[in-house]
Amino acid sequence: MRNTEQKSVILEVLQTHKDHPTADQIYSEVRERLPRISLGTVYRNLEKMSQAGVILKLELGGGQKRFDPTPSDHAHFRCVICSAVEDLPEDLRIDLPELSTLDNSKRVVLGNTLEYYGYCEKCAAERQLN
Amino acid sequence: MRNTEQKSVILEVLQTHKDHPTADQIYSEVRERLPRISLGTVYRNLEKMSQAGVILKLELGGGQKRFDPTPSDHAHFRCVICSAVEDLPEDLRIDLPELSTLDNSKRVVLGNTLEYYGYCEKCAAERQLN
DNA sequence: TTATATGCAAAGTGTTTGCATAGCA
DNA sequence: TGCTATGCAAACACTTTGCATATAA
Questions:
Q1: Does nucleic acid strand C have an atom less than 7 angstroms from the CB of B37?
Q2: What is the pLDDT of residue A62?
Q3: Which of B94, B17, B88, B24 lies closest to B62 in space, CA to CA?
Q4: How far is A105 from chain B (nearest CA, A)?
Q5: pLDDT at residue A71 above 70?
Q6: Considering the entire predicted model, what is its pTM?
Q7: Total structural domains within chain A
Q8: pLDDT score at A28
Q9: Chain B residues with at least one Cβ partner in A under 8 Å
């Protein structure tokens, strides 16, 4: 993996985020610094970095992939109606079993994500009305 | 939600699965019983049933949504290289915090999924070679 | 009877890819 | 120098949607 300005700007932009931006959110922010960068380059770099374990590619619903600068444990709540994704409080995180207990295969475990799903506050309210 | 033959066949087909088929896998199996059903109908019904909490829509990576007949707790392993999704042994499941502890919002929690990610056995092996 | 569901096909959305050029190592 | 990354645009894969018709309640 070669070091290019595009790649480092993408990573820097991503690291300023506390949430999980989509590729085109990243693209538009990166373009403020590199106006000629292409969306394809953004996708290619995000993909490579997530394969390298530098960042995390999340598939949280809503049709768009999201990217996380800190590949650490996370808990999210996803609404099955409107696809909204909300972060859950840190202290919700539970102690997961030792990764090695996954089984005795040769998988390399980089991390995990925990996702709750259901109706968000807004959709739950609208549901009551029907 | 009206009961139609299409809907019940879709649900029946899904319930024969122990894995998490994609919409077009379901479509092709349903078509053996209802040759004139359309893909759009399959999508519409899967969406409705997942909104109703009857089934679970999973976004596990690989670009395709997957559907699960039993909206119960699940643990998966996803390869960040090849996007393969593997089921993890049942006994891996951990005791999650009481859903009510999520916070004191008015969210309705239907369930949760736990996902590990990393390199699957095959991709881990190929990675060693490089 | 009438509102919801269907089949069909077209449109949409997000993502990937081929190719010629640029630029890192 | 040689090989990887880029920009551009076209192609792709999956999903959603408009519309006229069919059908459950």
A1: yes
A2: 73
A3: B24
A4: 7
A5: no
A6: 0.85
A7: 1
A8: 97
A9: 50-51, 53, 56-57, 59-61, 77, 80-81, 88-89, 92, 94-97, 99, 101-103, 105-121, 124-125, 127
